[in-house]
Design goal:
about 240 residues; alpha+beta; about 20% helix
């Protein structure tokens, strides 16, 4: 983390493709090693559980505990997974999880949003993690509902939204919905990991936060670990935030 945890923090968003890499092998340790390369304070994951059956976690709990510096936000929804509809939040050990929740959104195929309120020093931060629909019409509806809820959260705490928006066009209705209350960062092209051509993975923040740096994490390992590259941003609480 850059500087004091009460002042700045780094957040990342990563679609881990159920821990199946571009070589078609399932390798959760490879994903955890990519997280180690990034060294973010908060990581929001998409496709963090398996698609069928019990939807077991793609990153087994014992691997996270013994081979990473993170702990999952306990969503208390699916016993065999750390996420909900594939979405999960990991936080660096030592960051207090003050609250957590799931959000139902309109969908064509099963989708949802995960949220957490985190304590970073004396500051509170609201985090939203999402993976939006493949249909543009449904994406816009989902973005409208999420942005409305996130704006309410931003009245209480600084708020950051992250995830795979599945949106190729910057002029889309999805982007317009989020832009009404949040700054959308241009981290860079993250999909496909072997040859990135699209900015599907996004980080957004309210005006109680400011961006210091942002980008796409590119490494030989990240190119193989998933079909998406992770995106990241280092953010700072603005001076007028007191809690």
């Amino acid at each position: 983390m850059t500087g004091s945890p009460a002042t700045t923090f780094t957040v990342a968003s990563y679609n881990i493709h159920k821990a199946i890499g571009t070589d078609r092998n399932r390798d959760p340790m490879r994903v955890l090693n990519v997280l180690g390369e990034m060294d973010a304070d908060i990581v929001v994951l998409q496709e963090a559980d398996r698609r069928f059956g019990k939807r077991q976690s793609a990153l087994p709990a014992f691997l996270i505990e013994h081979h990473s510096d993170y702990e999952p936000v306990p969503l208390d929804v699916q016993l065999d997974s750390m996420g909900w509809h594939g979405n999960a939040i990991l936080v660096r050990e030592g960051i207090e999880i003050a609250d957590h929740d799931i959000v139902h959104i309109p969908y064509l195929e099963p989708r949802g949003v995960v949220t957490a309120t985190l304590a970073l020093g004396e500051r509170r931060l609201s985090v939203f993690g999402m993976h939006l629909d493949l249909s543009g019409l449904w994406r816009a509806r989902q973005a409208r509902e999420i942005a409305k809820l996130a704006r309410a959260h931003s009245d209480m705490h600084p708020t950051v939204l992250t995830g795979d928006l599945n949106e190729w066009r910057t002029s889309s209705a999805t982007h317009r919905e989020f832009a009404r209350g949040f700054t959308m960062l241009d981290c860079g092209r993250s999909f496909h990991s072997r040859r990135p051509v699209a900015k599907l993975d996004r980080i957004m923040h309210c005006d109680r936060l400011e961006m210091l740096e942002c980008g796409v994490h590119r490494s030989a390992l990240a190119t193989k670990a998933s079909d998406h590259l992770p995106v990241w941003a280092t953010l700072r609480f603005t001076a007028d935030v007191s809690a």
